[in-house]
């Protein structure tokens, strides 16, 4: 995917320029309209260690899965870095007086109902009320973590597995600041019958259809977490073609309970689902990943973004049909989306977002126990990473402490 030419944008005087501390916030509106700019800062090239696959190749302690993930991430970063270099550095701009400036959000997938909360936040003016304009929702899939690390996106919709790979294998200076899907919706689907994949043990010797990216790596992690040799699994490129499953060309298909599973069941197929979240990989799903520099120096901008997201997703949960309509009629109008599927997805994704924990503490905020479970799952999959190196929930903790009404479930 070609890198878009950076637009001229306002620049915020960072907390670092104010001596490393955030000034007291006199109120949301006052904070919004102080001298401000965009989340983008001058593009600083990554270090060699962040651009080279050398760590993935030479680390003898890294598991085969983690090493393979690292090499995949390395190729993504190299491509993103090359595109960044071709486009040239971002322009400097004079600080503005009425907002944070533009905001580029790199989505993980096409503009379907999966991003209903973002459509609500955008169409209802929540981003602009928080000081961002214009806001660009960039469709995926793409090398999300590399986009964040190289500065071509302000916010990336990553995953725990994707971010952990970028951090451990490529030393990318990023972190997850919240999870939209506190419970991931990934699953291995199969047709009901004698060859159904009902347990992780059934993965052995099976042919699994996967799309490009980390799908194969996640199935391998699921297998390894459950004592199944990933080498016994045959992976077949599927590229979104679920007909491979229904036609018998593969035994299983890796996808989402909130997407492909709905499509297949609505078509009348009897499908068995093997969710990763309840079979040894309780990883968070779609998550907000940002640079460590932004967390340290642009906290108010990130909090403004998160507040808009909270409001947008509270609306999408309260009125799922409205979010689906925005996908169908506005944001994904040119994709040929199916009304029945989008409406069903809008409902099906709610339990993955509004979990029991989210009802207690607020959307996106992972509890210490949830973080511990994520790290344990990563360890089973061959990763060696500390929670503090992957997660930073401090921004959401500050938001809910300052504005407890935002933690009230819709």
TrEMBL record:
Q: Which reaction does it catalyse?
A: N(6)-(pyridoxal phosphate)-L-lysyl-[4-amino-5-hydroxymethyl-2-methylpyrimidine phosphate synthase] + L-histidyl-[4-amino-5-hydroxymethyl-2-methylpyrimidine phosphate synthase] + 2 Fe(3+) + 4 H2O = L-lysyl-[4-amino-5-hydroxymethyl-2-methylpyrimidine phosphate synthase] + (2S)-2-amino-5-hydroxy-4-oxopentanoyl-[4-amino-5-hydroxymethyl-2-methylpyrimidine phosphate synthase] + 4-amino-2-methyl-5-(phosphooxymethyl)pyrimidine + 3-oxopropanoate + 2 Fe(2+) + 2 H(+)
GO BP annotations listed: thiamine biosynthetic process
Q: Which residue ranges have biased composition labelled Basic residues?
A: 1-11, 19-46
Q: Which residues form the SsuA/THI5-like domain?
A: 112-322
Q: Which UniProt keywords apply?
A: Iron, Metal-binding, Pyridoxal phosphate, Thiamine biosynthesis, Transferase
Q: Would the keyword Iron turn up in this protein's UniProt record?
A: yes
User: Which superkingdom, per the lineage?
Assistant: Bacteria
Matching Gene3D superfamilies, A to Z?
Periplasmic binding protein-like II (3.40.190.10)
Region annotation (Disordered) ranges: 1-60
Pathway stated in the Swiss-Prot or TrEMBL entry? Cofactor biosynthesis; thiamine diphosphate biosynthesis
**Gene Ontology molecular functions:** metal ion binding; transferase activity
One Pfam entry name? NMT1
What the record says about family reads: Belongs to the NMT1/THI5 family.
What's this protein's function?
Answer: Responsible for the formation of the pyrimidine heterocycle in the thiamine biosynthesis pathway. Catalyzes the formation of hydroxymethylpyrimidine phosphate (HMP-P) from histidine and pyridoxal phosphate (PLP). The protein uses PLP and the active site histidine to form HMP-P, generating an inactive enzyme. The enzyme can only undergo a single turnover, which suggests it is a suicide enzyme.
Subunit: Homodimer.
PANTHER family assigned to the protein according to its UniProt record, in alphabetical order: 4-AMINO-5-HYDROXYMETHYL-2-METHYLPYRIMIDINE PHOSPHATE SYNTHASE THI11-RELATED
Its name, as the record gives it, is Thiamine pyrimidine synthase
């Amino acid at each position: 995917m070609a890198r878009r030419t950076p637009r001229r944008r306002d620049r915020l005087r960072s907390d670092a320029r104010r001596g490393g501390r955030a000034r007291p916030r006199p109120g949301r509106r006052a904070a919004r309209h102080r001298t401000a700019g965009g989340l983008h800062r001058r593009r600083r090239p990554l270090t060699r260690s962040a651009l080279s696959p050398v760590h993935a190749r030479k680390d003898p302690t890294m598991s085969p899965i983690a090493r393979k993930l690292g090499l995949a991430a390395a190729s993504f970063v190299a491509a993103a870095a090359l595109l960044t270099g071709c486009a040239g550095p971002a322009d400097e701009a004079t600080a503005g007086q009425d907002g944070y400036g533009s905001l580029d959000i790199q989505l993980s997938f096409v503009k379907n109902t999966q991003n209903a909360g973002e459509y609500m936040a955008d169409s209802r003016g929540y981003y602009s009320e928080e000081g961002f304009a214009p806001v660009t929702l960039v469709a995926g899939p793409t090398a999300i973590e590399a986009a964040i690390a190289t500065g071509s996106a302000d916010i990336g919709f990553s995953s725990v597995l994707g971010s952990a790979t970028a951090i451990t294998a490529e030393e990318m200076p990023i972190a997850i600041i919240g999870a939209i899907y506190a419970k991931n919706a990934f699953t291995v689907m199969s047709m009901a019958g004698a060859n159904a994949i009902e347990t992780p043990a059934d993965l052995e010797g099976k042919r699994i259809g996967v799309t490009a990216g980390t799908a194969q790596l996640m199935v391998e992690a699921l297998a390894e977490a459950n004592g199944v040799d990933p080498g016994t699994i045959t992976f077949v490129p599927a590229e979104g073609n679920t007909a491979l499953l229904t036609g018998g060309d593969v035994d299983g298909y890796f996808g989402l309970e909130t997407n492909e599973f709905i499509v297949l069941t609505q078509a009348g197929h009897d499908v068995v689902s093997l969710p990763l979240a309840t079979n040894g990989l309780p990883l968070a799903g779609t998550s907000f990943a940002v640079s460590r520099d932004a967390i340290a120096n642009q906290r108010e901008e990130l909090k403004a973004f998160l507040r808009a997201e909270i409001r947008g997703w509270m609306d999408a949960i309260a009125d799922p049909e409205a979010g689906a309509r925005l996908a169908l009629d506005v944001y994904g109008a040119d994709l040929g989306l199916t009304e029945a599927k989008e409406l069903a997805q809008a409902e099906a994704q709610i339990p993955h977002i509004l979990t029991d924990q989210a009802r207690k503490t607020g959307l996106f905020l992972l509890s210490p126990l949830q973080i511990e479970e994520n790290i344990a799952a990563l360890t089973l999959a061959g990763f060696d990473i500390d929670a503090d190196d992957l997660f930073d929930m401090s921004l959401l903790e500050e938001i809910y402490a300052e504005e407890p009404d935002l933690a009230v479930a819709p």
